[in-house]
Write a structure and sequence with these properties.
heterodimer, A: mainly alpha, two-stranded antiparallel ribbon, 8 helices, globular, disordered C terminus, B: alpha+beta, 5-stranded mixed β-sheet, 4 helices, 12 strands
Chain lengths: 235, 276
């Protein structure tokens, strides 16, 4: 067996991936500064079950701990500035992924549902064997990464509907009106937070070699050469 | 992974080099990011915002103006209308130096006049509200949108601002550099406060195309009832193509200008254009 370097993530994918982190964080933070301004009893978003409020977005301590109160103008200024970086970074990533053919490793295929189920069962310690790899990613990854690109597009579309609800009124109308567009925009933000939690825990579980590939672009892989050369020590 | 051959060792060495390089680039990027963050926050203020953010708002304004057409905001059924919350009383109820709220003694509705000034005029024009009865009345049911995020469908009644400007011959001629308007609440001084420490009047600045939009109304009624004082009686401006902060209550003065005038909320860090 020998150890070789195997190309995994192209440079542009890595750069836009890492750039997206701080930009998305700024968008979420500034979005919360805006959301605070309308977080009244009547207007705040809640998840209800029957007559019970399961989750209210957000309790007062949340704003206090994170220092999010009374900064609406600042929130709007950051949000409407950094939205361009989010958009440009997203366009760079998606157009590269599309043009380079990387999308083939990313989009779900007919094996995806089975593999995604394997991942869930494996993570729940019901299934022992790790999920099958399918190119660079497994089925669960294909679903998650394609999904999060869809969410990014969703954030831009719902964002446009909120930004220009008259001039781009047809988008607002398609989304169910101004208040629906706001709620959808907010729900996508919650989606990123959930994605982030799962993403980070999976990256930790997958280990150093996997993480390092997003830093260097390469993975170290053990390969069994098809034509063993003399003198090689079999391990 | 344990190396078994010189080739393996070379692969591992290369990986170590690339990893170090990657983290070095990441470190430099992180430091640059933090430097950029503190640079942005420490820039000189341009009306309540570090100037790069003001520039960003202005760049967005250019996009907004590029998108702009006289497209109408969606009209709703009158049954969907309700009273919006009274969000701002600035211009009527203001704060003195002692921090106490007081009301400005506005002119009585019967004596209310709209004062219009233009730099190319020698005299100001004064139009009593009674003169507005000469204009066609309009009812418009649109969604009032607040920068805070809430919105409310409201039925507004009044006259088109464009009709008002045209009928009384207030509009600058075609090609005039007077492309902006500043709208002001009454100058009535706040009682118990020195003349040199009077709180500012409420102001709303507009670009001419927005002022001439067919749904930009001079309103005296809301949801079929006469406008209440808290909502801007006797006369206010309503434009569904802008956030609520531009929908000035107790409108008393209109000033045409060639230079972009500021206004109350722009000075407090909000986007000047505020176009929807």
């Amino acid at each position: 067996m020998s150890v070789t370097l195997k190309a995994k993530h192209p440079r542009l994918v890595r750069y836009t991936h890492w750039m997206n982190g701080p930009v998305l964080l700024i968008m979420i933070w500034s979005g919360l500064l805006i959301y605070w301004a309308s977080d009244t009893e009547a207007d705040s978003y809640k998840i209800r079950l029957g007559g019970w409020v399961l989750i209210q977005f957000f309790p007062e301590w949340f704003y206090e701990t994170l220092g999010l109160g009374s900064q609406l103008a600042k929130g709007m200024a950051w949000h409407f500035f950094f939205m361009w970086f989010f958009l440009i970074n997203g366009i760079l990533y998606t157009s590269y992924t599309f043009l380079s053919g990387e999308w083939r490793d990313l989009i779900p295929n007919r094996r995806t549902p089975r593999q995604a189920l394997q991942t869930v069962l494996h993570d729940l310690k019901i299934r022992k064997a790790p999920p099958e790899q399918d190119g660079k990613f497994n089925g669960a990854q294909r679903l998650a990464y394609t999904g999060v690109i869809g969410m990014g597009i969703g954030s831009i579309v719902t964002g446009l509907a909120i930004w220009k609800p008259v001039q781009l009124g047809w988008i607002t109308w398609l989304l169910g009106g101004y208040q629906w567009a706001r709620a959808e925009h907010f729900a996508l933000m919650i989606g990123y937070v959930l994605f982030f939690v799962i993403h980070i825990s999976q990256v930790i579980r997958a280990g150093w070699n996997n993480f390092r590939a997003m830093v260097t672009g390469y993975e170290l892989v053990s390969t069994i050469p098809s034509h063993p050369t003399a003198g090689e020590v079999k391990s | 992974m344990t190396p078994n051959s010189p080739m393996d060792e070379e692969a591992i060495r290369r990986m170590t080099r690339m990893t170090r390089r990657g983290f070095a680039i990441g470190g430099v990027a992180a430091v640059t990011g933090f430097a950029g963050w503190s640079w942005l926050n420490s820039r000189e203020s341009a009306e309540g915002l570090p100037w790069p953010f003001r520039r960003a708002h202005e760049a967005n304004e250019a996009v907004g103006r590029g998108l702009y057409t006289e497209r109408l905001a969606q009209e709703h059924a009158p049954s969907a209308a309700a009273e919006p919350r009274v969000n701002g009383l600035i211009g009527w109820r203001d704060t003195g130096e002692d921090g106490e709220y007081r009301f400005r003694p506005h002119p009585a509705a019967a004596e209310w006049v709209l004062t219009v000034t233009r730099p190319d005029w020698t005299a100001l024009r004064q139009i009593p509200l009674a003169a507005l009865t000469a204009l066609p009345r309009v009812e418009s049911v649109t969604e009032l949108k607040c920068v805070e995020g809430w919105s409310q469908i409201v039925q507004w009644g009044g006259v088109r601002f464009a009709d008002f400007l045209r009928t009384f011959d207030l509009l600058p001629p075609e090609g005039s550099p007077l492309k902006y308007l500043q709208l002001l609440s009454p100058a009535s001084p706040l009682p118990g406060v020195n003349s040199d420490s009077q709180p500012p009047r409420y102001t709303s600045a507009l670009d001419l195309p927005s002022a001439l939009h067919p749904q930009t109304l001079l309103c005296d009624s809301m949801n079929g009832e006469p406008l209440t004082k808290a909502h801007g009686a006797p006369i206010r401006l309503v434009l569904p193509i802008k956030y609520g902060i531009k929908n000035i209550k107790w409108l008393s003065e209109i000033r045409f200008s060639a230079n972009k005038p500021t206004d109350y909320w722009t000075q407090r860090g909000y986007d000047w254009y505020a176009g929807l």
